[in-house]
């Protein structure tokens, strides 16, 4: 009898253990399922917040963005825009309110994928570069230097630019066309299909080389200056700006504005050449349409170097900085609006990932 009493007890214990193991495995499987799902949800929420922030900030400064592009591609034989205030008044007088925001829809349409690829690429590049740096130095506590941040930012900028370049190319054309242009692109997808059909796939990447070269200092410096300034403020705590290693929103905005100003000033000449090369082969650009609606000879460049040479020879070195003033004027409010909007949307969606993370 004793043995018979023991056997059920052992069987029961074995059953309980098995059930516990199965429950543990089930919870593990559930955790494996939940963890990626939660991470994916957080990433999606962050992308939505960044997309909304980018769209709102770009829309707020859209008139300055359009004027900048018009100044960049303006034909020196047909000068219509002489400055920021005069240029905005001219657009308002000739095209009205819609003219100030022409091309903004396409610009906003590329914000989400561009920001997603850029920030994701920067995060992955930073991790990879930091791991290699720590292995080479033998210091597991080593942190990214400003130069390494520049490299990670350059990688992110190249990948993001290449991934969304066709949208940027047609945005430039949508922005430049006016009501007097004989032929009109009706929107982003119509412009993409028209360029693809009439000029071929390679036309979608006109100006890609100066864009990639320009994005290296631009995005690279943006990330490097922004994060290095924050890192310096947190470690040095000058003038009592930092308390408990937490930067205020105003300080973050100042860091972002400084980073944007440095980056866009260094890379601006390449941006001008990029825009001009994007107009090659298009006879209906605003830069080649005179005030009476007649066409002048369109811009023709054999390549990036030729575009630089012709621009400097015909218009001088200052032409490489056409549109810099409206571009500089929009940097601070654009970054400020983007940061504030991002933080607000992030808080509404319950995202805990910080933009600097």
What does it look like?
It is found in: Mitochondrion inner membrane. The structure is a single chain. By secondary structure, the protein is an all-alpha fold. The protein has one domain (2-349): Mitochondrial carrier fold. It is 73% helix and 0% strand. The protein contains eleven helices and no strands. It has helices spanning 2-60, 62-73, 84-100, 104-109, 111-137, 146-176, 188-199, 208-236, 249-278, 304-315, 324-349. Helix 2 packs antiparallel against helix 11 (324-349) and helix 5 packs antiparallel against helix 6. The protein starts with a helix and ends in an 8-residue tail after the last helix.
Write the layout of secondary structure elements.
Layout: H1 2-60, H2 62-73, H3 84-100, H4 104-109, H5 111-137, H6 146-176, H7 188-199, H8 208-236, H9 249-278, H10 304-315, H11 324-349
Helix pairs in contact: 1-5, 1-11, 2-3, 2-11, 5-6, 6-7, 6-8, 8-9, 9-10, 9-11
Stretches where pLDDT is under 50 for at least 5 consecutive residues are 1-8, 30-34, 286-295, 353-357
Report the principal-axis shape: globular
Strand portion, in percent?
A: under 5%
Alpha-carbon distance between the termini?
A: 67 Å
Question: Rounded to an integer, what's the Rg over CA atoms?
Answer: 27 Å
Looking at the overall shape, the CATH architecture is Alpha/alpha barrel
Report the structural category. mainly alpha
CATH homologous superfamily placement: Mitochondrial carrier domain
């Amino acid at each position: 009898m004793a043995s018979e009493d023991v056997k059920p007890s052992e069987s029961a214990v074995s059953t309980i253990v098995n059930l516990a193991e199965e429950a543990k495995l089930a919870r593990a499987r559930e955790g494996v399922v939940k963890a990626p799902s939660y991470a994916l949800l957080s990433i999606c929420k962050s992308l939505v917040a960044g997309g909304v922030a980018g769209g709102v900030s770009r829309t707020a400064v859209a008139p300055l963005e359009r004027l900048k592009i018009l100044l960049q591609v303006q034909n020196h034989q047909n000068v219509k825009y002489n400055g920021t205030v005069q240029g905005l008044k001219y657009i308002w007088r000739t095209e009205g309110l819609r003219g100030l925001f022409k091309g903004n829809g396409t610009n906003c349409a590329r914000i989400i994928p561009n920001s997603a690829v850029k920030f994701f690429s920067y995060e992955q590049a930073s991790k990879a570069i930091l791991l290699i740096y720590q292995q080479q130095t033998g210091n597991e506590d080593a942190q990214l230097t400003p130069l390494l941040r520049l490299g990670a930012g350059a990688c992110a900028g190249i990948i993001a630019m290449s991934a969304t370049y066709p949208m940027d190319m047609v945005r430039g054309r949508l922005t430049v066309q006016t009501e007097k242009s004989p032929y009109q692109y009706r929107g982003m997808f119509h412009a993409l299909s028209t360029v693809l059909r009439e000029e071929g796939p390679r036309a979608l990447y006109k100006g890609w080389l100066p864009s990639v070269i320009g994005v290296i200092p631009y995005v690279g410096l943006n990330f490097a200056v922004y994060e290095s300034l924050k890192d310096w403020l947190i470690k040095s705590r000058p003038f009592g700006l930092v308390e408990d290693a937490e930067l205020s929103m105003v300080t973050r905005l100042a860091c972002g504005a400084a980073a944007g100003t440095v980056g866009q000033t260094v890379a601006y000449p390449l941006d001008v050449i990029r825009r001009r090369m994007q107009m090659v082969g298009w006879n209906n650009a605003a830069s080649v349409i005179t005030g009476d609606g007649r066409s002048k000879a369109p811009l023709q460049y054999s390549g990036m170097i030729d575009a630089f040479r012709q621009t400097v020879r015909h218009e001088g070195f200052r032409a490489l900085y056409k549109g810099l003033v409206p571009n500089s004027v929009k940097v601070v409010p654009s970054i400020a609006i983007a940061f504030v909007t991002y933080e607000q949307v992030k808080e509404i969606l319950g995202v805990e990932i910080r933009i600097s993370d």
